[in-house]
Amino acid sequence: MPRDSARAEKRRLATTRAEPYLRDMANLHGQDVAQASRAPVGRVVIGVSLVWIFLGLVWAAQTTMGAILRGVAPVPLASAIRTTLVQTLPWIPVTLAAIALTTRFPLSRPTWKRHLIAHVIAVAVLAFVANILVVLGYWVNAGIFNGVGTLMSQGLLWATVNFHVALLIYVSVVAITHAMLYYQEPARRSS
């Protein structure tokens, strides 16, 4: 019976798109495949989170130092950190979504025409989501909530005004994700 379950598990792995990744990470004789597939996801979530937190802290320090160097009213570091984290933390789920979409819809030579429309739609939707989260963060800091309609309209307004930023972030994430997938490809083929 254990041999049949191992065959069934191999068949299930072969039918998934993540099969090469899971095969490399899973030891079918002892480790649970679901547990093996969570390991790299956790590392990606932690890595993306740390990058955005680091960028927020650098931005806060730059804001504080910039005010001092310009000779204007100094910005307290705590206030600068709070403000910049409100602006950077919403990009964590958006970045993770962009990575997932890039993995699911790669822009490789044979598939780029089919998958490009998914990325064009995704950049607009993710810009909207990120800006809704930014507006919500400012409202939470102020202790107010002006309603779902106002949240949607403000999110749309800021997504439109800051679309160039969202586009730059999305394209950067897609490029980095493709570079990582390309870098990992020879290792997957050799195993």
Describe this structure in words.
By secondary structure, this protein is mainly alpha-helical. The chain has 2 domains: 1-86, no CATH class; 90-191, no CATH class. Helices cover 82% and strands 0% of the residues. Helix 3 crosses helix 4 (77-88), helix 3 (33-70) crosses helix 5 and helix 6 (112-142) packs across helix 7 (148-161).
Radius of gyration: 21 Å
Percent strand equals under 5%
The main sheet comes to: none
Amount of helix: over 70%
State the end-to-end CA separation. 28 Å
**What ranges have pLDDT less than 50 throughout 5 or more consecutive residues?**
21-37
Q: What structural class do helix, strand and pairing data support?
A: mainly alpha
Compute the average pLDDT. 84
Summarize this, please?
With 191 residues, this protein is mainly α.
Give keywords.
191 residues; 8 helices; 82% helix
Topology:
Elements: H1 2-14, H2 19-25, H3 33-70, H4 77-88, H5 91-104, H6 112-142, H7 148-161, H8 163-190
